[in-house]
Amino acid sequence: MNAPLSPLIHLIDDDAAVRDSLALLIGTVGLRVRAWASPQDFMEKFDRGGIGAIVLDVRMPGISGLTVLEKLVAVGVDQPVIMLTGHGTVEMCRRAFKSGATEFLEKPVDDQQLLDTLQAAVQQHVRSRERNRDDRDARERYAQLSAREREVLGLIVAGLTNKEIGRALDVSPRTVETHRAHLFAKLGAESLAQLIRRYAALVEDAA
Amino acid sequence: MTPLHNRLAVLLAGAAVAAIGSIVLARLELDNLRAAFETDARIVHRLLSQRTAQHDAVMAMLALLQSGSRTDRPEQRIPSVYPQILGVQQRSNDAAWPDAALSAAEDESRRNRRAAMAGVDFKAGRYQLVQAAVPASYAAQIDLRSMVPWEEWPMPRETSPVRVMLEYDGRQFVLQPGQEGSGWRQFDFRKRLAADSQPFDVVAMRNLNWTDLPWIKMLGWTLLTAATFAALLALERQRAERRRAEELLRLGQVARLNTLGELAAGMAHELNQPLTAVLANTQAARRLLDDESPELATARSAMQRAAEQARRASDVVGRLRRVVERPDVAGQLQPLSLEAAVRNALYLLEPELQRLGIKPAVGGPAVTVLAEPVALEQIIHNLLSNALQALAQVPAGERALHIESRAAPGQGTLTVRDSGPGIAADVLPRLFEPFFTTREGGLGLGLSLCESLASGMGGTLVAANHAPRGAAFTLQLPLAPAA
After folding, report:
1. pLDDT tens, A23-69?
2. How many Å apart are CA B475 and CA B469, to the nearest integer?
3. B299: nearest CA partner in chain A
4. Cβ distance B420 to B470 under 8 Å?
5. Which residue among A150, A200, B229, B419 is buried most deeply as judged by most CB within 10 Å?
6. What pLDDT score was predicted for residue A81?
7. In CATH, what number is assigned to the domain containing residue A107?
């Protein structure tokens, strides 16, 4: 995965005037914008790995924005999707959120509202990507532990002291101390608190 | 089931009922004919039996009454009392019968102790009856035709269809000729006469003709059935048409609502697109100008685009106005009867009228105005629907609906007056404004459309309240020039 330079907003609207003006507006806060006239074109060509958000008009010729949304979610696109509509109904709104839309805005849209929503969406996307990366990282490190080290980690997470762990595993506190040092090194943990925060869930999953 | 199947089923059912009814009628008639035939045949048998028994009695009496005196010859007087007895011969002990047959009969009579028959001659229509006795025996010659008591005969002898014969020893004597039939059916009767001395069989037969069937009754029944089923079909068709009309009306309403919904959605989209662009452009321009080093060229072009999009929005509104606001009805004006238009509208609202228990009072002279048919119907329909909705708000006993036509010089008017709550004073001036409504969920387009349609046809629509309570709408349209 290439680390993106800065977030990229994909804007899909068949109306050139709307597309250009919204792109200009979004650009004024320093976000990069890529405007698409055709939903089909967008779905074929856009970079799914990038950080950013998608702004999708509901009413477009050929294919409805809601259908585009459903297809994006179905193929596992993780960028947040913001729906824009000129005549939102409750039913349409319900369907959009159910299909995984992040936000549903009515045209004409206020600049502050749109830009705030986009910033929030981008931050949310960045956080979710980081969380995913951390999770994967933690799983990889956990996989490197020996069986004994995993036992020791489980007891540390359970809140036992070195002495108590030694008694439980029938080894000397010094041996426990050695395992503990290896654990911290292999898992890249800098403090007990960080170790527990990152790996408690994995230990419970393994148990 | 489709209407066609329905009709076919009714037709088949009708044909079956007609056929079964006709068969039953024919059977009844045949049974009647058979009963009459058998009654007549039994009467004939009884009459002839009585006569033969009489012959026996006469002969027995002669035998008993005979005296020694040769001068007193009672047998000579018998033909004058019994016309069928043509003559009586007497044979004394010492004499002999002129005919061997008579001798044989006398022997038989003596053996059986009753009279005996001899010399049956069907060609001549006669037979002899012999009574053996002591000292003298008698032989009477009897005429078959005269033997029949025609005055008591149960049938008209010449015209009756029944053939009646006496049969003896395989030969037959026809008493009544009867009539030939087509032979598809025949009644038969055969019974021996009661007197053993004269063993004739009474044979009666009747050949039935096709004309004996009760054709008139059967035809009548068929016609009656046909009429009944035709009436049923007509009723069914009427109901179906009514249902179709209601369906069409409902569809029309739904379609109109859909059209309005589509129009609203389309309008929202058409206007929101340029408005979105206007807003985004101006807001982007403001942000660009707010920067420490403003990008003037970009901001200027954004403002330029905003102005273009504002113009685009205004074009959309103009186009909508041309489409919606003034339907062109002036082109299709034609002479129309107000009364007929009212009748059509009332017909469509019939279920609603019945539900509310309203009997509309329609009055005034026949007026023919110049109008476009659909527009006129739409106006009247809307006015009546409004009146019904107003009337639904007052108790059932106080609901009255008056529809009155009037002809003024050059103008025809139609007034729809209800006894509903009337129109509030603050509402009255705004009544014909588009999108103004007092009704929950109402579009506020009905009366506005009516007024546009009326003025498009060169007329007016006026609303007022009237005493003691209720609203009155008056539609005025140009009178059609006299033909």
Report:
1. 999 999 889 999 999 888 999 999 888 899 999 998 777 778 888 99
2. 20
3. A24
4. yes
5. B419
6. 95
7. 3.40.50.2300
Provide, rounded to the nearest whole percent, the portion of chain B with pLDDT above 90. 33
What pLDDT digit, counting tens, does each position of A143-162 carry? 888 888 888 998 988 888 88
Q: Do A86 and B273 touch (CB under 8 A)?
A: yes
Instruction: Indicate yes or no: pTM above 0.90.
Output: no
Please check whether residues A19 and A118 belong to one and the same domain.
yes
Average pLDDT over every residue of A160-184: 90
Question: A45 and A100, same structural domain?
Answer: yes
Across the interface, whether the CB atoms of A25 and B281 are under 8 A apart is answered yes
Q: Is the CB of A20 inside 8 Å of chain B's CB atoms?
A: yes
* Residue A48 included in any domain: yes
Assess if residue A139 is contained within a domain: no
Contact B415, B406 (CB under 8 A): yes
Largest CA distance in chain B: 182
Q: What is the residue-wise DSSP string for B305-356?
A: HHHHHHHHHHHHHHHHHHHHT----GGG-EEEEHHHHHHHHHHHTHHHHHHH
Q: Beta strands A52-57 and A32-36: pairing type?
A: unpaired
State residue B137 phi and psi, 5-degree precision: -110, 155
Task: Provide the token pair at B409.
Answer: 């010089």
- Are A53 and A117 in the same domain? yes
Count CB atoms within 10 A of the CB of residue A84: 26
Judge: B275–A22 Cβ closer than 8 Å, yes or no: no
- Share of residues in chain A with pLDDT > 90 (%): 32
What whole-number distance in Å separates Cα of residue B308 and Cα of residue A142?
61
Q: Looking at CA atoms only, how far is residue A119 from chain B in angstroms?
A: 16
Q: What is the pLDDT of residue B259?
A: 62
| The pLDDT of residue B2 is above 70 | no
Same domain as A113, residue A184: no
Chain B residues within 8 A of A109 when measuring between CB atoms: 276, 279-280
pLDDT interval class at B133 (50, 70, 90): confident
State the count of interchain CB pairs (< 8 A) between A and B.
Answer: 76
Question: What domain count does chain A have?
Answer: 2
Using the beta-carbon criterion (under 8 Å), do B287 and A109 form an inter-chain contact?
A: no
Q: What is the CATH number of the domain that holds A194?
A: 1.10.10.10
Residue ranges of the domains in chain B?
3-67+75-212, 242-324, 331-478
- Nearest C-alpha neighbor of B331 from the set B456, B449, B452: B456
Residues 6 or more apart in contact with residue B331 via CB below 8 angstroms: none
Decide if A2 is inside a domain: no
Residue A89 is part of which domain span? Answer: 8-134
Say if B316 is an interface residue toward chain A (CB within 8 Å). Answer: no
In a domain? residue A46: yes
Fold (topology level) of B331-478: Heat Shock Protein 90 (3.30.565)
Residues A129 and A148 in one domain: no
pLDDT tens column, B348-384? 788 788 888 999 999 989 999 999 887 888 889 889 9
Q: How far apart are CA A79 and CA A105, in angstroms?
A: 17
From chain B, pick out residues whose CB is under 8 angstroms from the CB of A17: 273-274, 277, 305, 308-309, 312
Matching CATH number, B242-324, of 3.40.1350, 3.30.420, 3.40.50, 1.10.287: 1.10.287
